[in-house]
Amino acid sequence: MKDTITSLFPREEEISKKYRIDSPVCQNYYLVNGELRGWDGPLQEVLSPVWVKTGTGFTRTQVGHYPLLTREAACEALEVAVRAYDNGRGVWPTMSVGERIQCVQRFTLAMLAKREPIVKLLMWEIGKSYSEAEREFDRAVTYIRETLEALKELDRVSSRFVIQQGIIGQIRRAPLGVVLCMGPYNFPLYETFTTLIPSLVMGNTLLLKPPRFGILLFQPLLEALRDSFPAGVISTVYGEGETVVQPLLASGKVDVLAFIGTNRVADALRRTHPRPHRLRCVLGLDAKNPAIILPDADLDLAASECIRGSLTYNGQRCTALKIIFVPRSVADAFLEQMVKGITELKCGMPWEEGVTITPLPEMEKPAYLTGLIRDAENYGAGIVNPGGGTAVKSFFYPALLYPVSAEMRLYGEEQFGPVIPVVPYDDISEPINYVVNSNYGQQASIFGRDTDQLAHLVDSLVNQVCRININSQCQRSPDTFPFNGRKDSAEGTQSVSDALRIFSIRIVVSARETDENREIITNIVKERKSHFLTTDFIL
User: Fold this and answer.
1) What is the spatial distance between Cα 189 and Cα 141, in angstroms, rounded to a whole number?
2) 86-122 CB burial, b ≥16 within 10 A, e <16
């Protein structure tokens, strides 16, 4: 297997010109105060997880460089965002909803023109297959458009006046302030935009801190961000978290933390803020989503969904299936289907058509996954599929482990990679108790045909996780569905409509129902003297 994996890595001349990087991206500037400001300080080299064969061995492909900002540069970007918000009196927060929508639409058109370089950088930076990178880009654009439609609907509902108990009132939503937006490396474009776009369009000002991997793919968008929004509305911050992120939160001037990552990092960031009760957090965190196979399940379907759910993009998704519970009575048959499905997966470089398993962006991940496997083997588990767990450079062949038990790290630890732990059970209370006692509560998948058993499982899990998927893998889509989690898995609900609400706050403008007040409100509305107090209907 090692020889097979080694043969997957190409020579430079074997890479099609369509997918090559013509020249490394030298990003020696960042966006701040409406300008692309040059940076003459240190730069961080970005190396791809794709290794290329040379005459003497292997070398990693250089993707480019990005600036390592200092604490002072990051804090200056924060002051720019604070001034642009101006305690809610800045140009952007006081702009009408229709005008903000026009700005985002202008940005979307400019973004579409950069599809090819962004997709290519997604592929090279994080090892995502070219087709998956295309889907991520297209999904991000769709999310923007759906968000704008949801905002229009929200604004239409808010455009009416309510009269209750002698009080005239209009209820609208207002921004919260300065948002620090930090996305994840596995969906660096799409997931970042699921917080960036709704927070922007609701009138907040932003600091965008790209993830650890997937940084340069934002470079083609910097001019569009600069040209689409007023100066200071959005700035970018690059560098080590301790250097640039902690000072931002320690200042107490960040009003909202939009972060997708681990609960450990989120807790540390929250503690840095001097007034945590004033810091609103929108968090997408860890998950250990289980699949529970019932005795009467269609094993072909269950295995197919579990393979896709646990190995799409190498299992590097918070919504991935990360542990599988199977009745001991059908375990052998289920494992046979799983092994067959894993063997049929195409492994290779991310530009290859139909590829599923690709190099991992975290250089330390293969060693970490190997450690999880060795720990499980020490407690009696074995690798079921041929070649499972073989690692060469950044490539890790999927490993199916059975029987996994509570003593093993894999039982409770989120692996975030192509390792599939399978746990046998004799009574349905065992997987139910696992979910109840888990630190995580994002989603679960259940597979079966018996409606009594399925209904029992639904009722047992509905107060433990936030989405139950029947005979299908865990997933976030469609984006109109709420996406959230219990326990250590999330804070706040996201969707194209929920995100608009979570990045804003309801505000009431009211007056007693008198003739004079009616005349005052009518005059303000009729003469369009206020962007907030209005009955304009956005089409």
Assistant:
1) 10
2) eeeebebbbbbbbebbebbeebbebbeebeebbbbbb
User: Residue 442: what residue type?
Assistant: Q
Q: How far apart are CA 445 and CA 433, in angstroms?
A: 15
Based on its alpha-carbon atoms, the radius of gyration of the chain, rounded to whole angstroms, reads: 25
Q: Tokens 């999330």 correspond to what residue?
A: 490
Q: Cα separation of 394 and 365, whole Å?
A: 8
DSSP secondary structure letter of residue 241: I
Integer Cα distance of 404 and 422 in angstroms: 6
- Return the amino acid letter for 463: N
Q: What is the pTM of this model?
A: 0.95
Q: Which residues contact 362 (CB under 8 A, 6 or more apart)?
A: 213, 368
Rounded to 5 degrees, what angle do the CA atoms 297, 355, 309 make?
30
Structure tokens at 468: 């139950």
**Residue count (the chain):** 539
**Buried/exposed 327-358: b ≥16 CB within 10 Å, e otherwise:** beebbeebbebbbebbeebebbbbbbeebbbb
Neighbouring CB atoms inside 10 A of 378's CB total 10
Quick one: which of 255, 211, 270, 148 has its CA closest to 503? 255
Q: State the span(s) of the chain assigned CATH 3.40.605.10.
A: 20-284
Tokens of 343: 């063997």
Is residue 292 within 8 Å of residue 325, measured between CB atoms?
yes
Dump pLDDT digits (tens) for 136-152. 999 999 999 999 999 99
| pLDDT tens figures, 494-519 | 899 999 999 999 999 999 999 999 99
CATH number of the 20-284 domain: 3.40.605.10
* DSSP codes, 360-410: -S-TTHHHHHHHHHHHHHHTT-EE-STTTT-EETTEE--EEEES--TTSHH
For the chain, first and last CA: distance in Å? Answer: 59
Q: What is the largest CA-CA distance in the chain?
A: 88
Q: Are 185 and 365 in contact (CB under 8 A)?
A: no
Inter-axis angle of helices 115-126 and 130-158, nearest 10: 120
pLDDT digits (tens, 9 = 90+) for 199-254: 999 999 999 999 999 999 999 999 999 999 999 999 999 999 999 999 999 999 99
Is 219:25 a contact under the CB 8 Å cutoff? yes
CATH 3.40.309.10 spans which residues of the chain?
Answer: 289-486
Pairing of strands 399-402, 382-383: antiparallel
Distance CA 185, CA 499 (A): 20
Q: Look up the CATH number of domain 289-486.
A: 3.40.309.10
Measured distance CA(221)–CA(210) in Å, rounded: 12
Q: What residue has token string 């009760």? A: 277
